[in-house]
Design brief:
Largest sheet: 8 strands, parallel, barrel
Radius of gyration: 16 Å
Number of helices: 9
Shape: globular
Number of strands: 8
């Protein structure tokens, strides 16, 4: 049985932006403040280190019943028994990932162009991420920004829940939720915040108000 997920405030980790603080500490503070789901994103560490960090985060999140998603790496998700993976358009295809992970794991997929939504609708996945809504320095391997109109178009076409990522902060997330997104994925707004707990609390409050 797949873990129930709340996409409202989706934290994507980035150790280079963590101001030298342990990512486990940032994640736990964020969850205490209201973060509802966490993705571990690592681009520059060994497979062994990635797995070890994933296992630590899984243990950190377990008492809060918050899902841990692994970016790109199905092998790491399997090794750490994470709750799922998030895949880009150039990563392992979702059908193969589902075969490897089984029916109970969460799979998310990035959508970089509106016309990719139709293909995503045919897949056994749990959510799609509009990437990027706005251009951002934390994710440089993306296509042109889709903007609020792009979010609205994908929400209108998608049969899956939609998350906005790219340039998400306290000044931008209300518009994304108002456009119909189920949640927003943030990186530096929490990872680089002086107080990740307070930052998460502020952001989740904006999300909740925007959904009313």
């Amino acid at each position: 049985m797949r873990k129930t997920i709340d996409l409202s405030l989706y934290l994507v980790t980035d150790r280079p932006l963590s101001l030298g603080r342990p990512i486990e500490w940032i994640v736990e503070e964020a969850v205490k403040g209201g973060t509802t789901i966490v993705q571990l994103r690592e681009k520059d560490c060994s497979t062994r280190e990635f797995i070890e960090l994933a296992i630590k985060l899984k243990q950190t999140l377990a008492p809060y019943n918050v899902a841990l998603i692994i970016n790109d790496r199905v092998d790491v998700a399997l090794a750490a028994n994470a709750d799922g993976v998030h895949l880009g358009q150039s990563d392992m295809d979702c059908k193969t990932a589902r075969q490897l992970l089984g029916p109970d794991k969460i799979i998310g997929l990035s959508i970089e162009h509106i016309d990719e939504t139709d293909a995503a609708n045919q897949l056994d996945i749990d959510y799609v991420a509009v990437s990027p809504v706005y251009l951002t320095g934390t994710k440089t391997d993306t296509s042109a920004a889709l903007g609020i109109d792009g979010v609205k178009s994908i929400v209108a076409k998608s049969i899956h829940p939609v998350v906005g990522i790219g340039g998400m902060n306290k000044n931008t997330i209300a518009d994304v939720i108002a456009a119909g997104a189920d949640g927003v994925a943030v990186v530096s707004a929490i990872v680089s915040a002086e107080n990740p707990n307070e930052s998460s609390a502020e952001l989740i409050d904006i999300v909740k108000q925007s959904k009313q």
